[in-house]
Amino acid sequence: MGGGMSITGPDPEHMVRAGIPIGDLGGGMFGVMGILAALYERERSDLGQHVDISMLDCQISMLNYMATMHFLSGEDPYPIGNSHFVHVPYSTFTCSDGSIVIAVITDNFWHNLKGVINCPVLDIPKYDTQPGRWEDRDMINAKLNELLSVNTCAHWLALFEAQRIPCAPVNSLSQALSDPQVLHRNMVVDLKHPNGNSTRGPGNPIKLSRSSDEMFTAAPTLGQHTDEVMTQLLNLSVKQLDQMREQGIIK
User: Fold this and answer.
1) CATH 3.30.1540.10 is held by the domain 90-170
2) Is the pLDDT of residue 193 over 90?
3) Residue 232 has pLDDT above 80, yes or no
4) How many CB atoms neighbour CB 210 within 10 A?
5) Does the structure show a pLDDT above 80 at 173?
6) In which residue ranges of the chain is CATH 3.30.1540.10 found?
């Protein structure tokens, strides 16, 4: 409903949803922002207030500049895969052992790219500026795919990074979760379960300079907080809880 799915996918006939639950995650993040803003305002006014968050509102907000462009042009954007609606080349390209993203967002990046790939077909004055590259974008992307497919992701990334060309690997989850920087930032943590087992999960992306202690616990077991919920939130007595257990209402 928020419109984001209409611009996600390979083409207008094949729209796809985001690979993560962006509606739920967006609502949670904006909820936290609203709560923190209300708490900060309370320090000035001494008054509390209700924080109203709609997941649909959050999706509309995250349309960001795409929504502004729609209002300026009067046109509905459509899915264009991994390419960019302005910059060329800006897409996913296939190497011999995986895929990488190259983002040529200025002409000087294009000149650096030409020096790395050394392809006479692409080394013509027409492509030295964005309009010429945009006109022949399909050919340029196809040629780059052909050239990059003869070697590995690591090979090309090293060459591109040396020339400061924006690029990145398309990581699988296992690759992302074993990345040295991710591990260094404590973004993979151990979660110990009360039954003695443990697993790993994502860490906290918010790092604070002063209160930096991080603690992680597993999700509660089934019924672990039943007594607290029933007595503190519902004001039931211990006797009532015992009766509910006898009747099989709670366990």
Assistant:
1) yes
2) no
3) yes
4) 4
5) yes
6) 90-170
DSSP string, 166-221: -EEE---HHHHTT-HHHHHTT-EEEEE-TTS-EEEEE--S---SSS------PPPP
What confidence score (pLDDT) does residue 195 get? 82
Mean per-residue pLDDT for 83-107? 96
Q: In this predicted structure, what is the pLDDT of residue 198?
A: 87
Render the burial of 61-87: b for 16+ CB within 10 Å, e for the rest. ebbeeeeeeeeeeeeebebeeebbeeb
